[in-house]
Amino acid sequence: MPASRSIVFLLLMTLPGCFLFRKAAEERLFEIISLPGGVFQMGDVFEHENEDAIPVHDVTIAPFDLGTYEITYAQYDFFALETGRPLPSDDDYGRGQRAVVNVKWDDALAFCRHHGFRLPTEAEWEYAARSGGLNERFAGTDSLKAADRYVRHLENSVLHAFQVGTKSPNALGLYDMSGNVYEWIGDYYEFYPKNGEEPGYKDLEASAMRIIRGGSFKHGVMFAQTFWRSGTLADIPSNAIGFRCARSAHP
User: Fold this and answer.
1) Fewer Cβ atoms within 10 Å of its own Cβ: the N or the C terminal residue of the chain?
2) What is the dihedral of CA 8, 238, 201, 179, to 10 degrees?
3) Which of the four pLDDT bands, split at 50, 70 and 90, describes residue 183?
4) Considering its fold, how many domains does the chain have in total?
């Protein structure tokens, strides 16, 4: 069953004289893709050599929804003003439709929860990036030669977060799953389990580390491979880390 596209409109109230509120009120806050779920092999299915992404193991994904695009400054700014949070720095590169960065993990999670969403799990993220679990090295293609069509990375980009949706989407219609900015992941486990074993999830209350996925404008194209995993501290924002939101499908 193919993924389906829908748009979630949220009622946005405007404040007279406030450009950010007026601008956000004119925009779609969320466009989401509904994924039917399925079973796929998670990890480095290509060389079986990446120590952080082996052993390759079977994962069952329940149906879920995922944001078509990374969250933008325009979207996050409206949320921050509405909830009394500070606006994240744009490093003097402008706001608007650029993927928002300089946002901590807790703030990314708060944004998603505020709108009835959450951050994607690591398995959901990889399944979606690989167009529903296909053996795609990058989100949209398995070809390094074709990667520039889908991936915004160090060798083909400016040195800051770019506007969302400017590269080609993968087969599910998801943009920037490889490249532009890294994306915060919700729950995760540190080491991959062998087939037949249950994953050991980290206690996020006890660990300061979080997983980020997808590569960014700051790093080479190989960091944007769909199985590539990186870790970073939850409370240290970065100009190369943003996020998108997910939610479990309604029964």
Assistant:
1) C
2) 60
3) very high
4) 1
